[in-house]
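Session log. Operator J.P. requested a structure for one protein chain; no other inputs attached. Running the standard single-chain path with token output.
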Amino acid sequence: MLFKAASLSDWNLFGSSLPRSLWRADDAHQDAHYHYHNSHHPHPPPKPKWRSRGHGTHKVSFSDSSKSSKRDSSRHSTNNSRSSSPRLLPPRGDKDKDRPRSQHLWSDNRVWQRVNQQSEALWQESPAILSPSSPQPRPFLVYHDSFLNLLGPSPTLSLLISDPRAPYFHEAGVFHPQTNTLFITSNQIPDPSPDAVTTQNKTIVITKIEFFSPTDFTRDKVRCPERNYMANGGTNYRDGLILCAQGSLREPSGLIYMEAKRPHKTTTLLNNYHGRPFNSPNDVVVHSDGSVWFTDPIYGYEQGFRPKPQLPQHVYRFDPSTGDIRVVADGFGRPNGICFAPDEETCYITDTDLIHGDGTMVPSRPATIYAYSVFWTNDQPCLTNRRVFAYADTGAPDGIKCDVYGNVYAGCGDGINVWNSGGMLVGKILIEGGCANFCFGRNGEMWCFGEHKLWRVKLGDETHGALLGV
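Structure written below.
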């Protein structure tokens, strides 16, 4: 989508409404489950436990051999499971047992988020983390102590590239581990060439960044027909990646497969729903059974490079092995980001109806993440039990991903917002100007896309993206 971010000052992020946590951290409460390991405790925090349906840490698989076993093992579990994040409530002492839990945790409000003494120690050692006494915002805002386990002992936010020429860092964000390469699609860039008439003289560029170290890399433009396809969201697929092709006034929209290695050949996987053209596919994710799930809002039509919509704004499931294409969800203002929980029992879909393709922003429209239970029936998955998972307080949640512990990350108007699997906001990675999309790398590394800027975030080494698990 065309992301319209707001600055931190525009949204008055640090109002007095932020809650204050009153966790006690005296000697009586120093339990291994709640103790934060800093430089004096070099071992990483214990990993939370989550349900895996017997297959271990979820990684993307493109083999059909595990299809039946995956379905059989999941079919019995149709109810939404409890939060996959660890239960991090501290033990209550005798003098606290008669005190209401809500009062124990949330007894007053402060301008800055207040957490326990363990967090105070971390603030003193790591200046990147927001301190209650700091006069200026810092990159990492802690709403709940479970976020500290994800940050690790020394989280950092650094600027890799700043390019004022064009918004080259907008969508997709596909990391290809085999070649250590990151692919990113740009926002729309003016293109006066005659070939760009069908896209209203706009084009989208695919940038390829090959890393030799975290700060040593090469940057290149991918030579493929991205002008005709107006590529947007993407994900890993087989030895390459799938890109959402928004299409043009002449070219159809759909899904294309692009090889990760030169010459980056492209193949059209899908470009219609039983003969009817898609709107402008926006984001895509691959299930471990090999099926491809994607959203299809009308941003292309609103931005003038797609014909009048012929379909509602659906979410689709496409099975490349059979050619089956079907609708799995509807009822959105603007369906956008999509991802699965690590156990694939929950599907998360963002609705960015707050911001339309013409740039208008109406606060009363959804800026919401919806969660669905994945229910198998007759050997086919269905999305059931739609519920509000979270509502973004700043901007709209665009790109969305999970880590291996089930925490949910979304690119919003103030940066990356992080919720646990129960929908509680546990932390934020603040990025000036916002961040529409992002991508996990290896060992706690993330890349965040700020239109003209590419940011690198380093979290704890044990914080891995659920898609690749690296």
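Operator note: Residues 1-136 have pLDDT under 50 and may be disordered.
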